[in-house]
Amino acid sequence: MDVILLERIDRLGQMGDVVQVRPGFARNFLFPQKKALRANKDNKAFFESKRAELEALNIKRRDESQVLAKKMDGVKLIIVRQAGEGGQLYGSVTARDIGDALREKGYDVDRAAVMLNNPVKILGTFRTSVRLHADVKVDVDFTVARSVEEANLQASAALLERAEDAEKLLGEEQAEAEAQGEAETAAQA
Q: Which pTM was predicted?
């Protein structure tokens, strides 16, 4: 089935493109969400008459999404779940849970915008992307823990580990620089 896209859709096309999709995808997703029109003469004429209006609306949505992305930059979520001794969760953390946690923090984000490929089933610190607009994506860090206190301990341990890694990397760079200096001195002698 051929459709006219009313907005940019990943792996499909840009606004105004006529693309071929499966009928079920068009009928169940694109048409109900007002993301596409059936490609026929009348709809092509309608799209061309409304093109400037649709592009302006798309730019407005993108700008609003960029403002929200700047507010969300660096947001860290804590999700409290029950878990066994080995750190295995009794349930799982899904995109819905992350979307709800973002809403609790005051960010108006649809849970469908959270791009979590697989549910999280263990305790720890994770990162996922949130697609606010087809052109705007922001990364969100979240910690899954048994309690808020445990989440804070995990976060401080992660910071300490990053600092140790940075020190180790700096030490390796200094050792390389000294080795190069010694090699240059030996070559000159």
A: 0.69
